[in-house]
Predict the 3D structure of the following.
Amino acid sequence: MFQDRFYQTQQGEVFEQSQCMQHEHVLANCFSSILINFGYSTADPGRRIWTRNNKTVIVCLADDFNICGADLSTSPGKWFDADTVVITDNLITCDTQYTVLRVPVSYFGVFGYTPALQNFTPSHRFHLSVNRLDSQRQLILFELIAQSGGLDAVQRQDLVNFNARDAHESNNTVQDLQQNFTKHWRPLAEYYTGVYNQHWDAVLNSLPLLTHSLAIEQAGLAAYLNLVVETYAGNTTITFSEKIFRALVTPAPWAVFAALSAVQHLVDLEFDVMSDIVDHSYDRYVQDDWPGRNKMANYISTSLSNYHRIQQIDAAVLAARCKQAAEHNQQRLAALRAQWPGDFALWLPGVIAQLE
């Protein structure tokens, strides 16, 4: 079912042009080599958690580092003990008893590229592409459907790929996908059956939910607003992946579901987030305690308001503004990419001193 190139996300333009995954692997391997030479060892299949005597070193890029054994029952500043060093590209926004060594922000330059397609010709409301199944994404999908008046409305108006693929399960048949979807929904069912049950059968029987035959790059230029869903959306660690950088370099409006103040951090990094035409107020919305949906509901309602406003902008003016932002962001990432080797060379000695 997923052999078609459309579903081979690692072959997408952002990966092929930027080579971001190769850069990530090289950097992670570099730290592995350093740690091995310092006498650290790991039993972690992902080679992220390293130990030597009473000291722990975590190397986590792109993913939220709290997935590496954090004690989530306590405050973020106490997720790990004082003998833990975290090497990451995440930004943590609180003080910590453990040491966080953040790579220079110029590392984000590895995501830089110039898309081949540049013609923004919107014909649909939203573009939403989801290739990883989890409960958070399910809630966003159901909230979009509920606020749109049902699945039929979404299928008519939006460019959606929600494929219900689970990397840990079988994905060969529609029945497999339905089982995957049900598995991830089960922990939420007692909270939301009465909220979304009127949409359940329609969604389940439509899996994999695919409303178009466009490549992701084409779809991104054919909708008034790209709904970018990052994997992590907490309140204290800001993480970025290729998803947001693809949106930044594409001449089209976007809104991102991500960590608290993620958009503001992009502004701080000197990216153009088109805040003059896109209301990013959702960026200040605190993530609910699991399994809350308030942040998702706010994100969708704000996106609906954004769509109605953006649709009213003169087509030529809108296209010119999007092109301006995309070109600025392409240039910004190119500048960061050029800075990265020198920044890394200056930063690394301080890291080594922490690991010895």
